[in-house]
Amino acid sequence: MKLIFKDQTFSFELLRTMGYAAFGGADIGECLSTAYRIEEGNFESWYEEWLKTAIRVHQEADESSKHGNKSSARDFYLRASNYYRTAEFFLHGNPEDKRILKTWRLSQSTFRRALTLLDHHWEIVTIPYEDTDLPGYLYLAGDQPAPTLIVHGGYDSTAEELYFQVVTSALEKGYHCLVFEGPGQGAVIREQRIPFRHDWEAAVTPVVDYLIKRPEVISDKIVLMGISLGGYLAPRAAAYEHRLAACIANDGLFSFQVGKIAAALGGKESEELHFNSPEMDNFIASIMAQDTGIRWGIENGQFTFSATNLEELVHKTEPFTLEGVAEKIKCPVLVCEAEHDHAFAGQPEQLYKSLRSSKTYMKFTAEDSAEEHCHFGALKLANHRIFTWLDQVLNTEAR
User: Fold this and answer.
1) How many domains are there within the chain?
2) Are 42 and 12 part of one and the same domain?
């Protein structure tokens, strides 16, 4: 599925941003006109044009708010938040770039302005974690105890973005929802400089500890959903956190080891590669220059793993495998697959085969218009199927 751009990465990120139109996070014309102004494959052009759109929509929000038009202000703030997030997306090649924090904070602040204008109950929460806190949002579907969905993203998403992707659908289905950011994500990497860790249960267990103390939560109906790289992180946590009633890997991911990915690109075995050699440096530089997806993947990896070079990133991602781990999961697991996933082809099936607990495989296809990574462009359909499965697993009344 190509949208405006021939470049796969630019096309997908446009689809991702525009796909939130169904949930109030975008307007199609705003996205298309922005995309037409962008120079294909140019990260700076991407930033500049999305920033222009975000600023314009932000100004509309402030103007509407000043005149007491709350519903329009809410809508403008939500879209501005998504556009700021999109603008910041390709900036991570230089972790010291001051625009990263500035633009991300604008995405967060406009989202929080929108929250104050929403009708449903929400709270900004902090989860005690080791010697610091993890940030999150708790959304309640009503004032009665209900099943609760914990949601976290993956390699690049933010807690604010997940409001569009999952939360609005969860609330409509009667689920409370707690979205949080763990190490390597959102505010945790940008403000606290805490990188990803493979033992994700260290982040999820404190969230479960927090939820079971809340009177609104049915403690034996807490579910965990991980998105994108979260398709590895969530099953990893579920293998060791057994208070979860179910786990959703959207999409499933068995391993995320940069060394093996790089080896496959070079047509070699990972042990044959010498990442600190001039030959390897030249090889990586050449493919980064030719492929925006690889360039972004390496730059964002070094940013989110706090790795100073590719060799360090390879080392830090070595433990990111569910080999010998997936079979420890006890709760029911939903493994989602996108038919034409450009990021993790073949990985969902590998995860599914390794599971020993009750499991379901859910494939989204081009015929469904949901074949892209994490089913962007067809989130209404994807969320319908996922929550139908969850209703059945939790024996809740179908909605």
Assistant:
1) 3
2) yes
